[in-house]
Amino acid sequence: MKEKYTGGLWGAALGAAALAIVGFTWGGWVTANTAKIQADVAVLTAMIPACVKEVMADPTAVAELKVKRTSDYDDVVRDHLKRVGNTDNRGYQFNRDCGKAIENLMAKTTTTKS
């Protein structure tokens, strides 16, 4: 009787392992930590248009943008956030992405004026 159940238990164990492997590799399953990281990235990405709007509304920041290289736009974003009292450190990548969006906006503005 014991041998009768052994095969079924091994089959269930191997099936569960195979299901977990397939679920995490192709099924889109993620751990709680990965889900948190993905949510944080999505929130910061959604905040970029507001960041661009705030920076472009600040005359000091716009003046800095005119004299800085495009690779330094992230510094202008960081300085703007400090100047307006925003103490939340959103990180280098957020500042970089916002600076890139400003660069794209300024390039569009320049080409439409020409």
Topology:
Elements: H1 2-25, H2 32-57, H3 59-67, H4 73-83, H5 92-113
Helix pairs in contact: 2-5, 3-4, 4-5
Describe this structure as you would to a colleague.
The protein is 81% helix and 0% strand. The protein has 114 residues and is an all-alpha fold. The protein folds into two domains: 1-30; 31-113, no CATH class. Helix 4 (73-83) crosses helix 5. The longest helix is centred in the middle third of the chain and has 26 residues, at 32-57. The mean pLDDT is 88.
Helix content: over 70%
Radius of gyration: 25 Å
Strand content: under 5%
Count of folded domains: 2
Q: Give the number of helices.
A: 5
Query: What structural class do the secondary elements suggest?
Result: mainly alpha
Unreliable runs, pLDDT <50, ≥5 residues? Answer: none
Span between N and C termini? 87 Å
Q: What characteristic shape results from the CA principal axes?
A: rod-shaped
Task: Name the helix and strand elements from N-terminus to C-terminus, one letter apiece.
Answer: HHHHH
